[in-house]
Amino acid sequence: MRPSDLLSVAETYGAPVYVYDSAKITSQFERLTRAFSSVPSLKLNYAVKALSNLSVLRLMNSLGSGLDTVSIQEVKLGLMAGFKPEDIIFTPNGVSLEEIEEAAALGVKINIDNLSFLEQFGSAHPDIPVCIRINPHVMAGGNNNISVGHIDSKFGISIHQIPHILRIVELTKMKVNGIHMHTGSDILDIDVFLYASEILFDTAKHFKGLDFIDFGSGFKVPYKEGDIETNIEELGQKLSTRFNEFCKSYGRELTLAFEPGKFLVSEAGYFLAKVNVVKQTTSTVFAGVDSGFNHLIRPMFYGSSHEIINISNPEGKERFYSVVGYICETDTFGNNRRIPEISEGDILCFKNAGAYCFTMASNYNSRYRPAEVLWHEGKAILIRKREDFDDLIRNQIDVDDLFKAPSRKPAVK
Protein backbone atom coordinates (compact mmCIF):
# COMPACT_ATOMS: atom_id res chain seq x y z
CA MET A 1 0.00 0.00 0.00
CA ARG A 2 1.10 3.57 -0.69
CA PRO A 3 1.47 6.11 2.12
CA SER A 4 -1.31 8.13 0.46
CA ASP A 5 -3.66 5.12 0.66
CA LEU A 6 -2.92 4.68 4.36
CA LEU A 7 -3.35 8.38 5.01
CA SER A 8 -6.76 8.29 3.34
CA VAL A 9 -7.80 5.46 5.69
CA ALA A 10 -6.74 7.49 8.73
CA GLU A 11 -8.63 10.52 7.43
CA THR A 12 -11.78 8.45 6.85
CA TYR A 13 -11.81 6.21 9.91
CA GLY A 14 -9.63 8.10 12.36
CA ALA A 15 -6.64 6.88 14.35
CA PRO A 16 -5.57 4.60 15.82
CA VAL A 17 -6.63 2.05 13.21
CA TYR A 18 -5.42 -1.28 11.83
CA VAL A 19 -5.30 -1.75 8.05
CA TYR A 20 -4.85 -5.08 6.21
CA ASP A 21 -3.91 -5.42 2.54
CA SER A 22 -5.81 -8.37 1.02
CA ALA A 23 -3.48 -8.46 -2.00
CA LYS A 24 -0.44 -9.09 0.22
CA ILE A 25 -2.23 -11.88 2.09
CA THR A 26 -3.13 -13.48 -1.23
CA SER A 27 0.39 -13.20 -2.64
CA GLN A 28 1.90 -14.76 0.50
CA PHE A 29 -0.54 -17.66 0.32
CA GLU A 30 0.30 -18.20 -3.33
CA ARG A 31 4.04 -17.97 -2.66
CA LEU A 32 3.87 -20.68 -0.03
CA THR A 33 1.72 -22.85 -2.29
CA ARG A 34 4.21 -22.50 -5.15
CA ALA A 35 7.13 -23.42 -2.91
CA PHE A 36 5.57 -26.82 -2.26
CA SER A 37 3.98 -27.33 -5.69
CA SER A 38 5.82 -30.64 -6.20
CA VAL A 39 3.91 -32.20 -3.31
CA PRO A 40 0.75 -33.90 -4.69
CA SER A 41 -1.32 -33.06 -1.58
CA LEU A 42 -0.64 -29.82 0.31
CA LYS A 43 -2.84 -28.25 3.00
CA LEU A 44 -2.22 -24.79 4.44
CA ASN A 45 -4.15 -24.26 7.66
CA TYR A 46 -4.10 -20.56 8.56
CA ALA A 47 -3.32 -20.00 12.26
CA VAL A 48 -6.37 -18.05 13.42
CA LYS A 49 -4.66 -16.70 16.54
CA ALA A 50 -2.49 -14.44 14.35
CA LEU A 51 -5.47 -12.39 13.14
CA SER A 52 -8.99 -13.62 13.79
CA ASN A 53 -11.21 -11.01 12.15
CA LEU A 54 -14.15 -12.73 10.47
CA SER A 55 -13.57 -10.95 7.15
CA VAL A 56 -9.93 -12.07 7.06
CA LEU A 57 -11.08 -15.63 7.71
CA ARG A 58 -13.51 -15.38 4.81
CA LEU A 59 -10.63 -14.21 2.60
CA MET A 60 -8.59 -17.24 3.69
CA ASN A 61 -11.50 -19.53 2.90
CA SER A 62 -11.76 -18.05 -0.61
CA LEU A 63 -8.07 -18.85 -1.16
CA GLY A 64 -8.59 -22.52 -0.33
CA SER A 65 -6.97 -22.38 3.10
CA GLY A 66 -7.89 -24.53 6.05
CA LEU A 67 -7.69 -23.29 9.65
CA ASP A 68 -5.51 -24.06 12.64
CA THR A 69 -7.40 -23.17 15.82
CA VAL A 70 -6.42 -23.15 19.49
CA SER A 71 -9.74 -22.42 21.21
CA ILE A 72 -13.35 -23.49 20.78
CA GLN A 73 -14.16 -19.85 20.02
CA GLU A 74 -11.76 -19.88 17.06
CA VAL A 75 -13.40 -23.09 15.85
CA LYS A 76 -16.81 -21.40 15.93
CA LEU A 77 -15.44 -18.32 14.16
CA GLY A 78 -14.10 -20.59 11.41
CA LEU A 79 -17.44 -22.31 10.98
CA MET A 80 -19.17 -18.91 10.90
CA ALA A 81 -16.73 -17.81 8.18
CA GLY A 82 -17.84 -20.73 6.01
CA PHE A 83 -15.09 -23.28 6.58
CA LYS A 84 -16.10 -26.93 6.47
CA PRO A 85 -15.44 -28.76 9.74
CA GLU A 86 -13.00 -31.13 8.04
CA ASP A 87 -10.92 -28.11 6.97
CA ILE A 88 -10.39 -27.02 10.59
CA ILE A 89 -7.87 -28.57 12.98
CA PHE A 90 -8.13 -27.94 16.71
CA THR A 91 -4.66 -27.70 18.31
CA PRO A 92 -5.16 -26.48 21.89
CA ASN A 93 -2.84 -26.58 24.86
CA GLY A 94 -3.90 -26.91 28.47
CA VAL A 95 -7.64 -26.72 27.75
CA SER A 96 -10.21 -28.97 29.39
CA LEU A 97 -11.15 -32.35 27.98
CA GLU A 98 -14.70 -31.00 27.69
CA GLU A 99 -13.52 -28.31 25.26
CA ILE A 100 -11.77 -30.92 23.12
CA GLU A 101 -14.92 -33.04 23.09
CA GLU A 102 -17.00 -30.01 22.15
CA ALA A 103 -14.73 -29.39 19.17
CA ALA A 104 -14.89 -33.06 18.18
CA ALA A 105 -18.70 -32.89 18.29
CA LEU A 106 -18.53 -30.06 15.73
CA GLY A 107 -16.69 -32.40 13.36
CA VAL A 108 -13.28 -30.70 13.23
CA LYS A 109 -9.95 -32.50 13.29
CA ILE A 110 -8.52 -33.01 16.78
CA ASN A 111 -4.86 -32.60 17.75
CA ILE A 112 -3.90 -33.89 21.23
CA ASP A 113 -0.65 -32.94 22.96
CA ASN A 114 -0.62 -34.84 26.26
CA LEU A 115 -0.73 -38.50 27.32
CA SER A 116 -3.53 -38.02 29.86
CA PHE A 117 -6.06 -36.67 27.37
CA LEU A 118 -4.88 -39.04 24.66
CA GLU A 119 -5.84 -41.97 26.86
CA GLN A 120 -9.09 -40.42 28.10
CA PHE A 121 -10.24 -39.30 24.66
CA GLY A 122 -9.18 -42.56 23.01
CA SER A 123 -11.04 -44.59 25.62
CA ALA A 124 -14.24 -42.56 25.28
CA HIS A 125 -14.13 -41.95 21.51
CA PRO A 126 -12.05 -44.68 19.82
CA ASP A 127 -13.78 -44.09 16.48
CA ILE A 128 -12.91 -40.38 16.28
CA PRO A 129 -9.50 -40.00 14.57
CA VAL A 130 -6.95 -37.80 16.30
CA CYS A 131 -3.68 -36.17 15.39
CA ILE A 132 -0.86 -36.37 17.93
CA ARG A 133 1.38 -33.40 18.65
CA ILE A 134 5.00 -34.40 19.17
CA ASN A 135 7.64 -32.35 20.95
CA PRO A 136 10.82 -32.97 18.92
CA HIS A 137 13.09 -31.31 21.53
CA VAL A 138 14.46 -28.91 18.95
CA MET A 139 15.15 -25.30 19.90
CA ALA A 140 13.82 -22.85 17.33
CA GLY A 141 12.20 -19.43 17.37
CA GLY A 142 13.28 -15.85 17.71
CA ASN A 143 12.20 -15.39 21.35
CA ASN A 144 11.86 -17.67 24.38
CA ASN A 145 8.14 -16.91 24.51
CA ILE A 146 7.62 -18.27 21.00
CA SER A 147 10.00 -21.26 21.11
CA VAL A 148 7.71 -24.20 21.74
CA GLY A 149 9.58 -27.32 20.60
CA HIS A 150 12.40 -27.51 23.15
CA ILE A 151 12.69 -30.02 25.99
CA ASP A 152 11.36 -27.64 28.68
CA SER A 153 8.32 -26.60 26.63
CA LYS A 154 4.78 -27.29 27.81
CA PHE A 155 3.75 -28.18 24.25
CA GLY A 156 3.49 -31.64 22.73
CA ILE A 157 4.33 -35.16 23.83
CA SER A 158 8.05 -35.88 24.13
CA ILE A 159 9.63 -38.05 21.46
CA HIS A 160 11.01 -40.08 24.38
CA GLN A 161 7.43 -41.00 25.26
CA ILE A 162 6.62 -42.65 21.93
CA PRO A 163 6.36 -46.09 23.64
CA HIS A 164 3.71 -44.64 25.96
CA ILE A 165 1.77 -43.28 22.99
CA LEU A 166 1.90 -46.61 21.20
CA ARG A 167 0.68 -48.42 24.31
CA ILE A 168 -2.32 -46.08 24.66
CA VAL A 169 -3.19 -46.42 20.97
CA GLU A 170 -2.98 -50.20 21.18
CA LEU A 171 -5.08 -50.50 24.34
CA THR A 172 -7.79 -48.03 23.32
CA LYS A 173 -7.87 -49.09 19.65
CA MET A 174 -8.08 -45.40 18.81
CA LYS A 175 -7.41 -44.08 15.32
CA VAL A 176 -4.45 -41.80 14.64
CA ASN A 177 -4.78 -39.87 11.39
CA GLY A 178 -1.97 -37.33 11.78
CA ILE A 179 1.37 -36.49 13.39
CA HIS A 180 2.20 -32.87 14.20
CA MET A 181 4.98 -30.64 15.49
CA HIS A 182 5.60 -26.91 15.88
CA THR A 183 9.09 -25.83 16.87
CA GLY A 184 8.48 -22.09 17.24
CA SER A 185 8.14 -18.82 15.40
CA ASP A 186 10.82 -16.94 13.42
CA ILE A 187 12.68 -19.94 12.01
CA LEU A 188 16.03 -18.78 10.67
CA ASP A 189 17.91 -22.02 10.06
CA ILE A 190 16.28 -24.29 7.50
CA ASP A 191 18.59 -27.14 8.47
CA VAL A 192 17.23 -27.06 12.03
CA PHE A 193 13.70 -27.30 10.66
CA LEU A 194 14.69 -30.18 8.37
CA TYR A 195 16.35 -31.93 11.32
CA ALA A 196 13.12 -31.67 13.31
CA SER A 197 11.23 -32.95 10.26
CA GLU A 198 13.34 -36.12 10.25
CA ILE A 199 12.25 -36.72 13.84
CA LEU A 200 8.65 -36.37 12.71
CA PHE A 201 9.18 -38.82 9.83
CA ASP A 202 10.71 -41.35 12.23
CA THR A 203 7.71 -40.94 14.52
CA ALA A 204 5.23 -41.32 11.65
CA LYS A 205 6.62 -44.76 10.81
CA HIS A 206 5.01 -46.09 13.98
CA PHE A 207 1.50 -45.26 12.75
CA LYS A 208 0.10 -47.10 9.74
CA GLY A 209 -3.16 -45.24 9.13
CA LEU A 210 -2.00 -41.66 8.75
CA ASP A 211 -3.66 -39.19 6.40
CA PHE A 212 -1.34 -36.21 6.98
CA ILE A 213 1.83 -34.95 8.63
CA ASP A 214 1.66 -31.40 10.00
CA PHE A 215 4.99 -29.59 10.21
CA GLY A 216 3.66 -26.53 12.03
CA SER A 217 5.03 -23.25 10.78
CA GLY A 218 6.95 -20.33 12.28
CA PHE A 219 8.41 -18.99 9.04
CA LYS A 220 10.20 -15.69 9.61
CA VAL A 221 9.21 -12.60 7.65
CA PRO A 222 11.38 -9.47 7.23
CA TYR A 223 10.66 -6.63 9.66
CA LYS A 224 12.84 -4.03 7.99
CA GLU A 225 14.75 -3.47 4.77
CA GLY A 226 17.56 -6.01 4.47
CA ASP A 227 16.18 -8.16 7.31
CA ILE A 228 16.64 -11.92 7.05
CA GLU A 229 13.68 -14.20 6.46
CA THR A 230 13.00 -17.91 6.08
CA ASN A 231 13.97 -18.99 2.58
CA ILE A 232 10.62 -20.55 1.72
CA GLU A 233 11.66 -21.56 -1.77
CA GLU A 234 14.72 -23.47 -0.55
CA LEU A 235 12.75 -25.08 2.26
CA GLY A 236 10.00 -26.01 -0.20
CA GLN A 237 12.43 -27.70 -2.55
CA LYS A 238 14.26 -29.66 0.17
CA LEU A 239 11.30 -30.67 2.32
CA SER A 240 9.10 -31.53 -0.68
CA THR A 241 11.71 -33.93 -2.01
CA ARG A 242 12.11 -35.58 1.38
CA PHE A 243 8.34 -35.73 1.98
CA ASN A 244 7.67 -37.39 -1.38
CA GLU A 245 10.40 -39.92 -0.65
CA PHE A 246 8.83 -40.69 2.72
CA CYS A 247 5.38 -41.18 1.19
CA LYS A 248 6.83 -43.69 -1.26
CA SER A 249 8.45 -45.68 1.55
CA TYR A 250 5.32 -45.33 3.73
CA GLY A 251 3.27 -46.91 0.98
CA ARG A 252 0.62 -44.25 0.49
CA GLU A 253 0.27 -40.59 -0.44
CA LEU A 254 -0.08 -38.36 2.59
CA THR A 255 -0.99 -34.69 2.89
CA LEU A 256 1.78 -32.28 3.84
CA ALA A 257 0.23 -29.71 6.19
CA PHE A 258 1.44 -26.37 7.55
CA GLU A 259 -0.18 -23.85 9.88
CA PRO A 260 1.17 -20.46 8.76
CA GLY A 261 -0.01 -17.37 10.59
CA LYS A 262 2.58 -14.61 10.69
CA PHE A 263 3.88 -15.56 7.24
CA LEU A 264 0.49 -14.89 5.67
CA VAL A 265 -0.67 -11.73 7.45
CA SER A 266 2.23 -9.94 9.16
CA GLU A 267 3.46 -7.87 6.21
CA ALA A 268 -0.13 -7.21 5.11
CA GLY A 269 -0.86 -5.24 8.28
CA TYR A 270 -0.31 -1.57 9.11
CA PHE A 271 -1.10 0.21 12.35
CA LEU A 272 -1.76 3.94 12.13
CA ALA A 273 -1.52 6.27 15.13
CA LYS A 274 -1.67 10.06 15.47
CA VAL A 275 1.09 12.03 17.15
CA ASN A 276 -0.30 13.82 20.20
CA VAL A 277 2.89 15.54 21.32
CA VAL A 278 6.52 16.01 20.35
CA LYS A 279 8.41 16.33 23.63
CA GLN A 280 12.04 17.44 23.87
CA THR A 281 13.89 16.38 27.02
CA THR A 282 17.50 16.88 27.98
CA SER A 283 18.53 13.75 26.10
CA THR A 284 15.68 12.55 23.90
CA VAL A 285 12.98 13.72 21.53
CA PHE A 286 9.79 11.77 22.22
CA ALA A 287 6.94 11.39 19.75
CA GLY A 288 3.93 10.50 21.87
CA VAL A 289 1.07 8.88 19.97
CA ASP A 290 -2.63 8.28 20.68
CA SER A 291 -2.04 4.59 21.35
CA GLY A 292 0.06 2.29 23.50
CA PHE A 293 0.83 -1.33 24.25
CA ASN A 294 -2.88 -1.80 24.89
CA HIS A 295 -3.16 -1.77 21.08
CA LEU A 296 0.26 -3.03 19.97
CA ILE A 297 2.00 -5.01 22.71
CA ARG A 298 4.64 -6.86 20.70
CA PRO A 299 7.48 -4.32 21.15
CA MET A 300 7.07 -4.36 24.94
CA PHE A 301 6.19 -8.06 25.27
CA TYR A 302 8.55 -9.65 22.75
CA GLY A 303 11.05 -6.87 22.09
CA SER A 304 9.91 -6.92 18.47
CA SER A 305 10.98 -4.15 16.12
CA HIS A 306 8.32 -2.65 13.88
CA GLU A 307 9.46 -0.19 11.23
CA ILE A 308 7.87 3.22 11.85
CA ILE A 309 7.29 5.71 9.05
CA ASN A 310 5.74 9.18 9.03
CA ILE A 311 3.12 9.00 6.29
CA SER A 312 2.20 12.64 6.85
CA ASN A 313 5.72 13.74 5.90
CA PRO A 314 7.36 10.79 4.10
CA GLU A 315 9.97 12.93 2.31
CA GLY A 316 10.90 15.10 5.30
CA LYS A 317 14.35 15.48 6.78
CA GLU A 318 15.10 12.57 9.07
CA ARG A 319 15.62 13.08 12.79
CA PHE A 320 15.92 10.71 15.75
CA TYR A 321 12.80 10.05 17.83
CA SER A 322 11.74 7.67 20.55
CA VAL A 323 8.15 6.76 19.76
CA VAL A 324 6.09 6.16 22.89
CA GLY A 325 2.49 5.50 23.85
CA TYR A 326 0.03 6.97 26.33
CA ILE A 327 -0.11 4.09 28.82
CA CYS A 328 0.89 5.13 32.35
CA GLU A 329 4.02 3.00 32.60
CA THR A 330 6.97 2.39 30.29
CA ASP A 331 5.33 2.14 26.90
CA THR A 332 7.85 2.29 24.08
CA PHE A 333 7.37 1.38 20.43
CA GLY A 334 10.91 2.24 19.36
CA ASN A 335 13.95 4.02 20.76
CA ASN A 336 16.02 6.53 18.79
CA ARG A 337 14.45 5.73 15.43
CA ARG A 338 15.46 7.73 12.35
CA ILE A 339 12.11 9.05 11.06
CA PRO A 340 11.20 11.95 8.72
CA GLU A 341 10.56 15.02 10.83
CA ILE A 342 7.49 14.62 13.02
CA SER A 343 5.00 17.32 13.92
CA GLU A 344 2.07 17.10 16.30
CA GLY A 345 -0.94 15.76 14.42
CA ASP A 346 1.11 13.65 11.99
CA ILE A 347 0.12 10.03 11.32
CA LEU A 348 2.77 7.40 12.03
CA CYS A 349 2.57 3.98 10.44
CA PHE A 350 3.83 0.83 12.16
CA LYS A 351 4.57 -1.88 9.61
CA ASN A 352 4.27 -5.67 10.02
CA ALA A 353 1.17 -5.14 12.14
CA GLY A 354 -0.94 -7.97 10.73
CA ALA A 355 0.04 -10.81 13.07
CA TYR A 356 -0.45 -10.93 16.85
CA CYS A 357 -1.25 -7.24 17.04
CA PHE A 358 -4.98 -6.52 17.16
CA THR A 359 -5.60 -10.04 18.49
CA MET A 360 -3.49 -9.18 21.55
CA ALA A 361 -5.06 -5.75 22.07
CA SER A 362 -6.83 -4.97 25.33
CA ASN A 363 -8.81 -2.33 27.18
CA TYR A 364 -5.97 -1.58 29.60
CA ASN A 365 -6.27 1.91 31.10
CA SER A 366 -9.96 1.66 30.06
CA ARG A 367 -9.01 2.59 26.50
CA TYR A 368 -11.05 1.53 23.50
CA ARG A 369 -9.74 -1.02 21.03
CA PRO A 370 -9.25 0.46 17.54
CA ALA A 371 -11.09 -0.11 14.29
CA GLU A 372 -9.93 -2.58 11.62
CA VAL A 373 -10.02 -1.86 7.89
CA LEU A 374 -9.47 -4.20 4.94
CA TRP A 375 -7.84 -2.65 1.87
CA HIS A 376 -9.31 -4.67 -0.98
CA GLU A 377 -9.07 -3.94 -4.70
CA GLY A 378 -8.19 -0.30 -4.08
CA LYS A 379 -10.95 0.35 -1.56
CA ALA A 380 -11.02 0.69 2.23
CA ILE A 381 -13.65 -1.54 3.84
CA LEU A 382 -14.45 -1.24 7.55
CA ILE A 383 -14.37 -4.75 9.08
CA ARG A 384 -14.51 -3.82 12.79
CA LYS A 385 -15.90 -0.67 14.33
CA ARG A 386 -13.90 1.29 16.86
CA GLU A 387 -15.09 0.58 20.38
CA ASP A 388 -16.91 3.22 22.41
CA PHE A 389 -17.87 3.68 26.06
CA ASP A 390 -20.88 1.40 25.73
CA ASP A 391 -18.57 -1.43 24.60
CA LEU A 392 -16.32 -0.80 27.59
CA ILE A 393 -19.12 -1.29 30.14
CA ARG A 394 -21.33 -3.69 28.15
CA ASN A 395 -20.84 -6.72 30.42
CA GLN A 396 -20.28 -4.87 33.68
CA ILE A 397 -22.97 -4.98 36.38
CA ASP A 398 -23.26 -1.80 38.39
CA VAL A 399 -23.94 -2.67 42.05
CA ASP A 400 -24.58 0.92 43.06
CA ASP A 401 -27.14 -0.16 45.67
CA LEU A 402 -24.39 -1.90 47.70
CA PHE A 403 -22.30 1.16 48.28
CA LYS A 404 -23.26 4.61 49.47
CA ALA A 405 -20.98 7.60 49.40
CA PRO A 406 -20.16 8.80 52.92
CA SER A 407 -21.88 11.96 54.06
CA ARG A 408 -19.36 14.73 54.40
CA LYS A 409 -19.54 17.31 57.13
CA PRO A 410 -19.16 20.89 55.98
CA ALA A 411 -15.73 22.30 56.56
CA VAL A 412 -15.41 24.38 59.73
CA LYS A 413 -14.45 27.95 58.98
TrEMBL record:
Which positions are tagged coiled coil?
none
Q: Where does pyridoxal 5'-phosphate bind?
A: G218, Y356
UniProt keywords (A-Z) are:
Amino-acid biosynthesis, Decarboxylase, Lyase, Lysine biosynthesis, Pyridoxal phosphate
Please give one Pfam family short name. Answer: Orn_Arg_deC_N
Post-translational modification N6-(pyridoxal phosphate)lysine, affected residues: K49
> What EC designation does it have?
4.1.1.20
Pathways per UniProt: Amino-acid biosynthesis; L-lysine biosynthesis via DAP pathway; L-lysine from DL-2,6-diaminopimelate: step 1/1
Kindly list the cofactors needed.
pyridoxal 5'-phosphate
Keyword match Plastid = no
Q: Where is the Orn/DAP/Arg decarboxylase 2 C-terminal domain?
A: 18-354
Reactions accelerated catalytically = meso-2,6-diaminopimelate + H(+) = L-lysine + CO2
Keyword Signal applies: no
- What are the catalytic residues? C328 (proton donor)
- List positions binding substrate: R298, Y302, E329, Y356
Organism's domain of life? Bacteria
Using the record's annotation, list all stretches that form the Orn/DAP/Arg decarboxylase 2 N-terminal domain.
Answer: 23-266
Top-level enzyme category: lyase
Per its record, what are the GO molecular function terms?
diaminopimelate decarboxylase activity; pyridoxal phosphate binding
GO terms of biological process kind? lysine biosynthetic process via diaminopimelate
Quaternary structure per UniProt?
Homodimer.
Protein family: Belongs to the Orn/Lys/Arg decarboxylase class-II family. LysA subfamily.
- Function, please? Specifically catalyzes the decarboxylation of meso-diaminopimelate (meso-DAP) to L-lysine.
Q: Which HAMAP family match?
A: LysA (MF_02120)
Q: Under which name does UniProt file this protein?
A: Diaminopimelate decarboxylase
Q: Which organism is it from?
A: Lentiprolixibacter aurantiacus
Q: What is the lineage of its organism?
A: Bacteria, Pseudomonadati, Bacteroidota, Flavobacteriia, Flavobacteriales
Q: What gene name is given for the protein in this entry?
A: lysA
